[in-house]
């Protein structure tokens, strides 16, 4: 290898320092403070020892693929050539770290990056005139109005005859043993206070256990239909 070849490949004599030079077209960085800055082109490699570690380089060729040699030729017979092959290429004796060279363009780039990251997320701005957006305060929100409407409807429910409500409750408890008060209100269409007054006479409110916060019939009412048939 001649001197010109070594220089083209980034090798410098006599210390054999390796450097990487970026293509000038790839050094342009946009989007930092709406400015166009240039990244450093020169990136020297710092050579270090592996620090007592044993590192090696292996290559693996998949089954059926040809192996490319250093001279450009290939070996292998195509598909079905055999199992995968792993080969030891060499042992690592040095580690190279690529770092940008400290230059004016590099320091300018880092300064802009630091300024960009230190900008506050929110900025306060003094208004020069009144706000013209049509944002007006709302006396009451839609979901609050809907809740009030349902509440009024429940309050306006006419109380049915007690015996009629009992019949609806007994019919419901024949299907299920436990109900919460909301379901019973939907079934009977009665005000909550009035319904609870009737439930206290015929039902038990569970305050703990598996069926917490539910109503069930008292034992003497659970098989009332069977008892009516027996009395007859």
From TrEMBL:
Keyword terms, alphabetized: DNA-binding, Nucleus, Transcription, Transcription regulation
Keyword DNA-binding assigned: yes
Localisation per UniProt entry: Nucleus
GO molecular function: DNA binding
InterPro entries per record: TFIIF_beta, TFIIF_beta_HTH, TFIIF_interaction, WH-like_DNA-bd_sf, WH_DNA-bd_sf
Residue stretches making up the TFIIF beta subunit HTH domain: 158-222
Coiled-coil residue spans: none
Location (main, coarse): nucleus
Pfam families noted in UniProt: TFIIF_beta
Keyword Metal-binding: no
Matches recorded under Gene3D superfamilies: Winged helix-like DNA-binding domain superfamily/Winged helix DNA-binding domain
Region annotation Disordered: where it falls in the sequence: 59-83
GO CC, alphabetical: transcription factor TFIIF complex
Biological processes, Gene Ontology terms: transcription elongation by RNA polymerase II; transcription initiation at RNA polymerase II promoter
Family (UniProt): Belongs to the TFIIF beta subunit family.
UniProt-listed PANTHER family: GENERAL TRANSCRIPTION FACTOR IIF SUBUNIT 2
Protein name: General transcription factor IIF subunit 2
